[in-house]
Amino acid sequence: MLARSSAAWGDRIGPHERIWLMLTTLVNVLLIMTAALVIWSSGQSSVAAMRGDPSWTNALTFVVLAFRSASLGVQGIVGKRLNTQFTSTIILTTIWLIAAACGAGRTLATRIGAAGALAVGAGIRALITLAWIVVPGKPVAS
Prior knowledge:
Layout: H1 2-13, H2 18-42, H3 59-82, H4 88-99, H5 103-134
Helix pairs in contact: 1-3, 2-3, 2-5, 3-4
């Protein structure tokens, strides 16, 4: 639903307009930060003590998945509207979402917890939001 409304904004404002890019990226930041706050407030560990043991066992931890999924939907809409390879990052983000099993994401989750790892991701996404101000636009064909 959120992704659909993001697409509707893109239709009205224009998918290559900076304001739309900044707003959708900011929505993404807010969704990721909300997920970080929810997992932090759940009191659950971010990594299971033993392989096969569930680390997330209460309802709040599944709310985190809802916010992350909404974030992925918004990211997918932006990539689709820009018609770039940006959508390929959704696959990598989904791998972290489902398995939290690779590289830096796993290290962050182990050392600072899922909430901290999500907060780092939100911080990077916030920098991307600001980057839309300075990234040069496509040259206008004359």
